[in-house]
Every structure is written in structure tokens, then in C-alpha cells.
Amino acid sequence: MHRFKKILVGVDLSFGDHLVSEEVSPASLEAVNRAIWLAKSNSAKLTFFSALDVGAETQRMIEESNERESIVTTAKEKLNGMVSRAKESGIKADSDVCFGRSWRQIILKVVQDGYDIVIAGTRHLGPFKTILLGSTGMKLLRQCPSPVWITQPQADSQIKSILVAHCLRPVGDLAMELGAAMAELHGSELHVIHSQEHSEFESWHSIYQDNESNQKTPLEVKRHIESQISNYQFKTHPQIHIVTSTPPDIAALNLIENHNIELLVMGTVARTGISGLIIGNTAEKLLPQISCSVLAVKPADFVSPVTS
User: Fold this and answer.
1) pLDDT tens for the 308 residues of the chain, in order
2) pTM exceeds 0.90 for this model
3) Number of neighbours of residue 210 by Cβ within 10 angstroms
4) CA-CA distance, 83 to 76, in Å (whole number)?
5) 73 forms bridges with which residues in the sheet?
């Protein structure tokens, strides 16, 4: 897997009342670990990036008290420790710090500097509850033009089980390619889900649905998926789940729970005329409820609404 050459790692350095905390959160450490692994697998360059997220009034007070330079220096010291760790693994790496809304600054960094993927962490609030919805993670999934990997802290560095949500469109093919490559590298159990259910909820990528895709038989769906994964080597044979009656978000949640899925790979698209505002009805219902990490990709023609 040599798709990614420039990787941006979003690192949250804050904790409680501290803008730059002494300790890096488990969520950010997970993102750092995944980024170093991915960079090594792809011979890619890493940038560890932190946007110090403060309001305009707080930022003005920092400027007036001449503490800005001290805060930025402390933040860079934290990030440079990550840079040193990456370089010890033979990875080219650098760091950057700025002030501003973290999700917005990350997207601007991607748009301006052409990063291939963003990796960032999220905090876990309970067995089936995350803070993806309304958080930096959800905004990145909606509006960032590059693939986004939102990581959940886990004890084992190996990803044991992966679920790919496939829409049988180019963006679904890309998700399948990434999920299969990840499963091959990690020796993971691979599951693939495709929904043919349209009555209560939209499909994974309803904006792209047409009569031709709706008419595909389960056998045609299976053949499409099998043709994609035939060139990969897996420890166990992938399992294909074709959903015909259960709402797709419920079906995906059931698979995540029943098979202890640790990474969900899926495509996301805007479903309104305003690019990036909504990522798909099923995805909007599903993502706030999942307990696993998410790797989401956009269609090639996706344009982020964040440009400046």
C-alpha cells in the first residue's frame, strides 16, 4: 500500500484548562501511533500539527500579555518529541502550530499544502457513544477533501477486524481498496457490507444511486466485491454481507458489535447543494453511535467549502 505520501496528524495538546498540557491524551497518542505506522508502510512524510483552539477574546489576551511566543514554543516542543520519534523509525517528519479552530485549520492545511490523508483522535465516552458528532472529527469527515482517519484508543497495535461499507461506486471501490490493503498488512479479519435497502433510509451514497445500481442482484454485488479483493492475501476469507431489509445503519452497527470491528472504512459524499455540509443520511445516523475507528474517503470531484 503506497497511496499516501504526505500525512497530516492532528494532535490535540489541550486538556482541561491547559492550552498545552503536560501529557498528550490517549486519543492523540493513538493517532500518532497509527500515523507513524502508515508513514513507514508508505514511505511517507509526516507533519504533526496542532491548532490551539481558543476564542478571539482569549487569543487577544494572550497577544496582549506577550505569552503567545511562550505558548507556541511549548507546543512545538511537544510536537518535536513526536517528530524525533518518527525520525528514529526512518520517517521524514516536521511539525507546525497555529491558533484557531482545529477542524478549520486542519482542512486549510490540507487544501493549501496538499496532504493525502488526515489522522486525528477522538475521545471515547462510553460503550456506544463518541463525540464525533459536532466535534472536530465530524467536521473533518464532512468537509475535509482528503481521506480522514479518526482513531479510537485501543490496547493492541494490530487491527484485528475491519468493516468496509461498499456502495459499488468509484468512492466505494476506493474504500474497498484501502480496507483490503489494511486487512492484508495487519492480518485482519475483513468484512464487507453493501446495502440494497432504500425504503426507510437512503443508501450509503444515495446521491449516486441510479436505476442500474439499484437493479444489481446480490450475485452481481458479490462478484463486484470479490473481483476487487482477489489480488489481496488474507489470513481468513473475507465475509460479504448484503443487506436487503435491515436499515443500513442498524446492519452496520450490528456487524460492528457482533464481530468486534475495530476499523470502519467507508466513502462519504455531500447530499445537498452545499458541498460538505452533509455526508449521507446513513452515515449521519451511524457515525455518532459507533465505538470503532473510522477511515472515510471522498469522491474525486469533492470540493471542500473551507478555502480560506
Assistant:
1) 558 999 999 998 887 667 788 788 888 899 999 999 999 989 999 999 999 877 666 666 776 677 778 888 999 999 999 999 999 999 999 999 998 889 999 999 999 999 999 999 875 444 444 444 447 888 898 889 999 999 988 877 889 999 999 988 898 999 999 999 999 989 999 999 998 764 333 444 444 444 444 568 889 999 999 999 998 999 999 999 998 888 888 888 999 999 999 999 998 865 443 444 445 666 666 777 777 899 999 888 888 888 87
2) no
3) 8
4) 10
5) none
Domains, the chain: 6-151 (3.40.50.620), 161-297 (3.40.50.620)
Q: Is the separation of the CB atoms in 163 and 264 below 8 Å?
A: yes
Element (H, E) at 193: strand 189-195
Return d(Cα 302, Cα 270) in angstroms, integer: 8
Determine the residue type at 237: H
Please give the torsion angle defined by the CA atoms of residues 77, 79, 85 and 86, in that order, rounded to the nearest 10 degrees: -140
Q: Is 119 helix (H, G, I), strand (E, B) or coil?
A: strand
DSSP string covering 13-35, please?
Answer: --BTTBSS-SS--HHHHHHHHHH
Tell me the residue type at 182.
Answer: M
CA distance 28 to 10: 8
* Cβ atoms of 84 and 113 closer than 8 Å: no
296's grid cell: 472515510
* Contact between residue 153 and residue 124 where contact means Cβ atoms under 8 Å apart: yes
Cα(49)–Cα(293) distance, integer angstroms: 20
Q: Which residues pair with 189 in a beta bridge?
A: 161
Instruction: Mark out the alpha helices in the chain (DSSP H runs).
Output: 26-42, 56-64, 68-88, 102-113, 136-143, 170-186, 211-214, 218-229, 248-258, 281-286
Give yes or no for a contact between 13 and 77, defined as CB atoms under 8 angstroms apart.
no
Q: Are 280 and 294 in contact (CB under 8 A)?
A: no
